[in-house]
Amino acid sequence: MTSLHDVSMRVASLRRAGAAALVLLAIAGCSPDTDVLARVGSQTITTGDFEMMARALASRYPGLPDSAKAHLLRDIVDRELLVQGALREGLHRDTTFLDTRRKVEEQLLRQSFYDQLGATAVVVSQAEMEELHRWRAEERDVQIVFAMSKPAIDAALGQIRAGADFGDVADRFNPAGYTPPKGDLGYVQAGMLQQPLDDVIRLAPVGKVQGPIEAIGQGWFLVRVKDVRKSEPRPLRQEGPLLETILRQRKQRAILVKALERLRGDYQMRLAPGAAQSLIAYVVPPSLQSQAPPPLTMQQSALTLASYDGGVYTMGDAVDDLRSGGAQKPNFNLMPSVERWIEMRALERAALIEARRRQLGEEPELQRAVRERMNDYLLQGYVTTHVLERTSVTDSEARAIFERSGMKPERLHDARFLVVALRDSATAAQLAATAPQTEGLREAVSTAALGVPVKTQTATYPTENPMWQALEGPLTAAAPRGYTPAVPIGGFWLVAQLVSKNMAPQTFETLPQEMRTAFVNEVREEKRSLLLATLSDSLRRMIPVEIHWQRLKHVAWPTPGLPTMEG
């Protein structure tokens, strides 16, 4: 029976592969004609395209290589057909599509710029991991004071030098919720904090205040190490992946921080006077009344919060960024936090200008990535409109599937049993475990001297009695003279011994809800599969499709377990 999983091999699996940038090279004429495996309209699917997709998806196509290759190529063609169908309906001209495309292009352009800086190509050596592992053989009990500006941290240091308690100063200066009380981080090992804080803590003498220490992009710190003690890290072979991740992320962050600082200077990024105050005044007062800020006036929207060579960052831009959720919101109770947030958003726009200056948008790989992201968007809207929203299921259809399945499930009709109610869960669990070793439940209760009555009960199902409802499943599973586990209900724990029971065949209407839902979903998946196949067939009648099956025979299929170029 065809399921939605089979359908999704034509849509979802390829969409996921596109998101991973293992995408179709959809530039017609980029390869010799003999390298073309298929054409869908004006788009070509080359051997290179197929091989990249195969490396990404081979595990999802079991069976012999020839069969798997044919299945994958058919899915690639079907996916491209759906994209072409969406384009024919003009979905790519929708304002939402155009806005999404702009955002995707900007995101990928910025990422391409950051990647070009070398942040994605950092290497961590074995010696570096071994050194960090040695450092983690001790841990230090640490307190910190944090402020987002140099004047604030200088004021904190002045109070400490004047005799104030370090922990009291931390409570006065640290933002609410930023650290535990007194700025006490407890014992930390090397690698747990960002640089340069991590190295300062590792090297600081006990009891001596260190700082001010600037962590670019975060703020300023004072550090006090209260104690040092030995630690026993796990063996290097176990900690290796964690240490490699820590070191790689440190290097990547250092590269990006330096690049952003250089960008700040190259583009002369400047925060407008009163920028943070203006944004706070717009956002905070309505939030105190649990209300959204009012729409910006044209004058408010045009207010400059930051400037850089080639553009300005306005109040309208800031409100859009806050609403989109693409960046973490600042702490509006701290003006330096808002200032830093505005600066970062302006630097992102400067990075976009720099990426375009370097013509990174002309790179074929970036263009393919944009196209595949937008194909995902088109597919989602197109399939939703033509398949998902047109699929409804009636009870009669689900019942027909149930009857066709040949299943003959039974349900508990009635049961006669002995039952005892206990208030203590541990006592009930112990009784359920030891009762099978006695003559019966009454003897087990007597032997344990529990002093509670054992009652004989009969229940007919379905029932409105909540106690018997709770016992339905355990009694169904139990054999005559068998016991249920301890079952919680209404502040008591029930233990029952089955005397006898009668089972009855179930109709579709008496099936448990989860089983009925499963049959409904099966019908829905069948309908979706049929609708999708019909849609693809109709597109084939409008869009020329050319597949060169014989050329597929000469294309290698990835061998499971062997390394590929996936990295």
| Strand runs, count | 14
Query: Percent of residues in beta strands?
Result: 15-25%
Nearest-integer average pLDDT: 88
Radius of gyration: 33 Å
Strand line-up across the major sheet? 4-3-6-5
Tell me the number of structural domains: 4
Distance between the termini: 37 Å
Q: Using the alpha-carbon principal axes, give the shape.
A: extended
Tally of alpha and pi helices: 21
Structural class: alpha+beta
Unreliable parts: 1-31, 561-567
In short:
This protein has 567 residues and is of the alpha+beta class. It has 21 helices and 14 strands. The protein has helices spanning 4-8, 12-19, 47-57, 65-88, 95-116, 126-135, 150-161, 166-173, 197-203, 236-266, 275-288, 298-301, 315-324, 335-357, 364-386, 395-405, 425-434, 441-447, 466-477, 513-542, 549-552; strands at 36-40, 43-46, 138-147, 184-189, 210-215, 219-230, 270-271, 304-308, 311-314, 410-422, 455-460, 487-489, 492-505, 545-547.
